[in-house]
Amino acid sequence: MITDFDTSGYIADLEQLNMPERQMVAAETVKTLGATEKKSTIVDATNSLSDTDKKEVAARIEAGLPKPDGKTNNWIWILVVSAFVLVFVGTAASMVYSLLGEGEKAAAFDKLLIIFTTVVGFLVGLLSPSPVKSS
Question: How far apart are CA 39 and CA 69, in angstroms?
């Protein structure tokens, strides 16, 4: 980035333009930048906005992003459920192991029971019908 560049002449020229023309010049200028420079410019410009305006800009950017397709959604669900099933099986095996043991192993049973019941609650919640779903 050039820090000692005198922009006063360019700024004076821009100030002679009306607002839509200024926006057009700014947008076209940003389009000529590389990806890193675009991101940096957008972040710098966004930082000068109020919190309300930042939220509006973020909402407009989010609206322009594509929604995940069914394949992506399925992959995410499979990943999440598989992770919980893995914890479920691991906790169940650990509980059986701790019941067969003595001392510290047996003391760990309470902690494992908490994890086990939490995971069971999650998995049952996936199978139960939604209370807000109309029939």
Answer: 26
* Helix H or strand E segment including 96: helix 70-100
Rounded to whole angstroms, how far apart are CA atoms 60 and 102? Answer: 60
Phi, psi dihedral angles at 130 (to 5 degrees): -70, 135
What Rg, from alpha-carbon coordinates, does the chain have?
Answer: 28
The residue assigned the tokens 């050039």 is: 2
CB contact set of 99 (below 8 Å; sequence gap of 6+)? 106, 109
pTM: 0.46
Q: Which DSSP state fits 119? A: H
Asked if 84 and 123 count as a contact pair (C-beta separation under 8 A), the reply is yes
What DSSP character marks residue 135? Answer: -
Q: What is the pLDDT of residues 64-111, one digit of tens each?
A: 888 888 898 889 889 988 998 998 898 888 888 877 776 676 667 788
